[in-house]
Amino acid sequence: PPFPIVLSGTVQRGFGRGGKDLGCPTANLPDESILPMSSVTRTGVYFGYAQISPEKDSKALLQEQDCQVLPMVMSLGWNPFYKNERMTAEIHIMHEFASDFYGHEMKAIVLGYIRAELDYVSREALIEDIETDKRVALKSLARPGYEKFRADPLFDGGH
Ligand code: ADP
Ligand code: MG
Predict the structure, then answer these.
(1) CB of 66 within 8 A of CB of 116?
(2) In the chain, which end has fewer C-beta atoms inside a 10 angstrom radius, N or C?
(3) Which residues contact 101 (CB under 8 A, 6 or more apart)?
(4) 80 within domain boundaries
(5) Is there an atom of ligand 1 within 6 Å of 61 CB?
(6) 158 in a structural domain
(7) How far is CA 128 from CA 43, 61, 68, 123, in A?
(8) Is the CB of 56 inside a 6 Å radius of any atom of ligand 1?
(9) How far apart are CA 112 and CA 137, in angstroms?
(10) How much distance in Å is there from the Cα of 122 to the middle of ligand 2?
(11) Residue 33 Cα to ligand 2 middle (Å)
């Protein structure tokens, strides 16, 4: 089994489209950080844990509560801009952040697959499905077999 898959990189600016409007901002990882996902390549929605570092340009900018190990859902897809030759990974962290964290280091452990990518007839249908993804992720992560990854040595404060 390919999981857990570890990803890390600096949070990039995307097109700023949709995420915040849908109530679901997604932090983008740079192309080279997604290479570990090559072992699965299956597009769709994944779940796991993520952590944002407090510092950017060696200045501490985020509060402690924003830098815990937090549950996340990740969408993996192909980037049409690069003729679908490159994957994109966008991570929504289930936490209310005090501010944006572009340029901060993000570490993630991908633990499982939730569903394939779907086409949506409406914005409402999409929002509803994202809510379902979050519930599924939280339910799975509550199992002891997954909970332990919250304390993985990859993360700061992990053991
Ligand atoms: P972009 O196209 O630049 O990725 P989004 O609308 O998807 O724009 O917003 C993503 C940005 O929002 C992230 O890079 C991060 O700085 C910020 N953000 C705030 N809260 C969250 C969250 N809970 N999960 C992910 N990103 C968040
Ligand atoms: Mg985004």
Answers:
(1) no
(2) N
(3) 11, 27, 52, 56, 61, 62, 66
(4) yes
(5) no
(6) no
(7) 19, 33, 27, 9
(8) no
(9) 9
(10) 19
(11) 15
Domain count across the chain:
1
Residue among 55, 90, 96, 105 flagged as catalytic:
90
Is any ligand 1 atom within 6 A of the Cβ of residue 81?
no
Provide the domain limits for residue 46: 5-150
Residue 104 is classified by DSSP as S
ipTM here: 0.99
Give the tens place of pLDDT for each residue, 47-103: 999 999 999 999 989 999 999 999 999 999 987 777 888 889 999 999 999 999 999
Q: Is 90 among the catalytic positions?
A: yes
Beta bridge partners of 107: 8, 51
Count of beta carbons in the 10 Å neighbourhood of residue 72 = 26
The strand pairing partners of 145, in sequence order, are none
Query: CA dihedral defined by 134, 139, 141, 147, rounded to 10 degrees?
Result: 150
Q: How far is CA 21 from CA 26, 70, 92, in A?
A: 11, 22, 13
Tokens 């849908």: give the residue.
22
Give the integer Cα–Cα distance in Å for 16 and 26.
9
